[in-house]
Give the backbone structure.
Amino acid sequence: MKNLYIVTIFIIMLINCSYLPTKSNTNKMNATSLINQGNAYWGKRANHKSAKLAVLFYKKAFELNKADLNLAAALSEAYFFQAHYLESDLSKRDNLLLKGAESALKGFENSKYFQTFLDTTKFEINKIKLEAIKKAPIETIGVLFWWATNHGKFLINKPVIDRINSREILEVAMHRISTLDGDYYYGGPARFFGMFYSRLPGVPLERARLNFDQSLLDNPNFFGTRFLRARYYHTKLGNRELFEEDLQFIINGDPSLLPDAMPENLFEQEKAEQLLRDAIILFE
C-alpha cells in the first residue's frame, strides 16, 4: 500500500512537471505576444509612430526566435518601410536598410533548410550561400526577397563597383524568387531588376524597361514600380515627359485599389510629389 502511494505521488509530480513552462516554451509564448503586437502596429503603419513600433516589437520577438522565417521577413520588410518612406537622413536610412538585410539573411541562415544544406553540401564555404539560394524552397521566399530588396536599395547610390560585386548573388536570389512566384509582392522581382539594371553599367537599358513593364503588367496600381521607373530609368534616358507621366499617374491615382498596399501607395504619392518638384534639378 505504501509503495502504491509513493508511485501515485510520483505520477502526479510528473504530470505537474509536464505543465511547467520550459524556457523554450516561455520564449515561444513571449515571441508570439510580441509578434501579435507588432502585427497590430504594422496594420497601422501609415502612421509614422506605429510603423516604428512595429519594427520594435518584431525586433524583440526575433531576438527570442531567430529561426522564424515569417518573423524575419516581417522585420526586414518593416525596416525597409521605415528606411524608404520615413527616414530622410541618408546615413540613418542606410543603417535601417543594412539592418533589414541582416535580419532577413540571419533568418535564412538559421532556417532548417539552410542548416540541412550546410550539413550535406560539398561546396566551398564561400559558395555555400549562393548554392543554397539557387535551390531555396518556397518557405524562404520572404526572407530572400526582403534581404535582396534592402541590400539592393542600399547599393543603388553607392559606388558602381559595389553593385557589380553584389550583382551575382542578388540576381540569383531574385531569379529564384521569380521561379517560385514571379508575381511576389506585386511583381517584386521584375521591379527590382528594373531598378537595379537602370543603375548597372554594361547592362542594356532595354532590360530595365522590359522588367518595369513586366512588373506593371499585372500590378499597375502598385505605385512603387512607377516611382522607381521615373526615378532611375526615365532620368537615365533624360525623358522628362515619361518621367512626369509616371509621377502624375501616382499622384492622381487611387491608393486604395490595393488595400493591402494602401499605406505604401499613400507614401509613394508623397514621394512622387517631391520628385516632381525636383525635376528641374534632375533634368538640367
Summary: DSSP finds 15 helices and no strands in the chain. The two ends are 98 Å apart (CA to CA).
